[in-house]
Specification:
Blueprint lengths: L1 H49 L2 H8 L4 H12 L13 H17 L3 E2 L1 H8 L3 H10 L5 E2 L5 E4 L3 E2 L2 E2 L3 H7 L5 H9 L10 H6 L3 H13 L3
Antiparallel strand pairs: 1-3, 2-3, 4-5
Helix pairs in contact: 2-3, 3-4, 4-8, 5-6, 7-10
């Protein structure tokens, strides 16, 4: 009986300890969230105060929140406004974000792993494995997740020969790869690499992406 009582007390103490630890971890996270939001809101307030009405209108026309901020930063730079008060790298970061958005739009949009899994009739885990093996192209997002450019898929699955095309790349950056896949190439008669692949010119397409790496691109 005494052992049962001691065991019960120990169990109760352990439960109370765990319940105290969980709020502590959550409280620390909430503090980080509040600090980040405070810092971000201050930046947005400085941007909004400096921006003319037309720049704010253009930012609001963006289909996403992130795109709106990137558009605003990009529009303010040519106006001679000092963006260094926001961030020394604000202009270049904004232009990079917009370029990536445009590139993904040109690629037909970005699909989530779940959407790709449904399109290919495989599991989400199988999609992740294909990305890890380099047989599907995925670009990273700011949230740490990945988007899969829709241009690599057809109604019947992945474009035939696309896996071999990815293997021919000598550059690792996924955004650089996507850019090269969509850019027109004189070596392909003005067609893009993807257009050449769809036209059955797999060897020529692979030669172009391989040569890009050899040239230090």
């Amino acid at each position: 009986m005494a052992r049962k009582m001691r065991s019960s007390r120990i169990s109760g103490q352990s439960t109370r300890t765990q319940s105290r630890q969980r709020p502590t971890v959550e409280t620390a996270r909430q503090a980080l969230v509040r600090t980040f939001l405070h810092r971000s809101v201050q930046m947005l307030e400085r941007l909004s105060a400096a921006a003319p009405a037309e720049a704010l209108d253009a930012a609001l026309a963006s289909p996403s929140d992130v795109g709106g901020v990137a558009t605003l930063l990009s529009d303010l730079a040519p106006m001679g406004l000092d963006l260094s008060s926001v961030d020394p790298l604000a202009e270049s970061l904004a232009r990079g974000a917009i370029a990536k958005q445009d590139l993904l739009q040109e690629a037909g949009g970005g699909l989530s792993a779940a959407q790709v899994a449904e399109a290919l009739g495989i599991s989400r885990q199988a999609v992740d494995k294909r990305r890890g093996r380099g047989t599907l192209l995925a670009v990273p997002t700011g949230s740490g997740d990945y988007l899969y450019p829709a241009c690599q898929l057809t109604p019947d699955g992945v474009i035939p020969g696309f896996e071999n095309l990815l293997a021919a790349f000598k550059v690792e950056g996924p955004w650089t790869r996507l850019s090269l896949l969509l850019a027109s190439s004189p070596a392909l008669g003005g067609k893009s690499v993807l257009e050449a692949l769809r036209a059955g010119e797999a060897e020529k397409a692979a030669a172009v992406v391989a040569a890009f790496g050899e040239q230090g691109g």
